Amino acid sequence: PLLDRIGGRDGPAHYPEGWAMAGNTPFRRYKQYVDLGGVRSPLVVSWPRGIAAHGEVRRQFVHAIDVMPTVLDLIGAPSAADTHGRSISATFGDPAASTRDTQYWE
User: Fold this and answer.
1) Which of 5, 11, 88, 106 shows the greatest Cβ crowding within 10 Å of its Cβ?
2) Domain extents in the chain
3) 3-state helix, strand, coil in the chain (%, to 5)
4) Which phi and psi angles does 76 have, rounded to 5°?
5) What confidence tier does 21 reach under pLDDT thresholds 50, 70, 90?
6) What's the pTM?
7) Of all helices (H) and strands (E), which one includes residue 63?
8) How far is 77 from 52, CA to CA, in rounded Å?
9) At residue 1, does pLDDT exceed 60?
C-alpha cells in the first residue's frame, strides 16, 4: 500500500530494500551499503597535454579526498600537511602505480 507513494512528495525517503538491491545489480546489497553497494563511481581524467595514454582504464582505488592533493601535485604546489588524501598523478603514466588500500566511510 505504500508502493503508490514511492517517488511522490508524500513518499518515503528511500524505496524498499528489495527494489534497492535489484536496482544496484550487479553489485551486492544497495547503494548505502559500504561493501560494493554504491561506493564505486568512475573518475574520468582528461588532460591531453599531460597524459600520454588515451582511453586506458586504471583499476586503482581512489577517493574524492585524493583530488586536491593530485591537483596540487600537478601544479607543483605543496600539499596541505593535514590532509588524508594523496596524489594519484603517478597512475597517469603507470597503470600499476600504487594508490591506497583504505576506504573512508562515515
Assistant:
1) 88
2) 1-40, 41-99
3) 25, 0, 75
4) 80, 15
5) confident
6) 0.64
7) none
8) 22
9) no
Count the helices and strands in the chain (H runs, E runs): 2, 0
Can you tell me the distance from the alpha carbon of 10 to that of 28, in angstroms, rounded to the nearest whole number? 29
Reduced to 3 states (helix: H, G, I; strand: E, B; else coil), residue 90 is helix
Please report the pLDDT score of residue 106 as a whole number. Answer: 58
Helices (H), the chain: 17-23, 67-75
* Residue reference for cell 518515503: 12
Residues above pLDDT 70, as percent of the chain: 82
The highest-confidence range among 55-59, 63-67, 77-81, 91-95, by mean pLDDT, is: 91-95
Distances (CA, A) of 1 to 6, 18, 19, 105: 10, 15, 15, 34
Scanning the structure block, which residue is given the C-alpha cell 503508490? 4
| Phi, psi for 69 (deg, rounded to 5) | -60, -30
